[in-house]
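Q: I have 228 residues here and want to know how they pack in 3D. Can you give me a structure?
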Amino acid sequence: MAARSVIALVSVAEVVAGDLADHLERRGHDVRQARQPWEAESLLSAGGIDVVVVGDDVTQAEGRELLRRFGGEGGCDFILICRPADLVDKVLALELGAADVIESPLNVRELAARIGGLLTRRGRNTQELIVLENATVDLRSAMVMHRSGAEDQLSPGQVALLRLFLASPRKVLTRDDIIAAAPAENADAFDRSIDSRIVRLRRKLDTETIITIRGAGYRFDPPTPRTD
């Protein structure tokens, strides 16, 4: 199993830091926090950090100093949060090698996506994303992220069932196929329980890609990619 990526939050506002840490940890990342720049120096000096998010509670000069010391080639990727009026500081941070600069107030889900993008470029992203009509599924963290912004957690049995369909696109799977490859999570694994499992999975994914083939079983038809 790949090691979990490590995200450091430096002087990020408490409410944002709490939501962001929860968001990232549910996606399989480790989160470490430093309230003050001097705490960040100790944290970053120890190594092992993949991405550093520097909050706008830190002065721009302090943020740039952390970037100089711990960023750059072979160092951490830095995302700096700045206030909308700080255009000059934003440009300076990017010129010094910041991977990204995002203005406050920010959207936690967007910031988490930016962090995921950096980890992907580093080859450190642990996500395994599946895009459906109305939601994106991260199979490794068993999270369903709906277009509305809501999130759902898949059970281990639902993940196994979804993986089975993904492995056999456009192929009809019988009830026996499903019971053998993705058994129910409790003793109720009789034939009649399959229908209810499929209904619950469809509802949680908000998808019509899992089709009932009467008298035969079920088929997964991958959605057509969106062009908008």
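Q: Anything worth noting?
A: Residues 130-220 form a domain with the Arc Repressor Mutant, subunit A fold (CATH 1.10.10.10). Helices lie at 14-25, 37-45, 60-70, 87-95, 108-122, 156-167, 175-181, 193-205.
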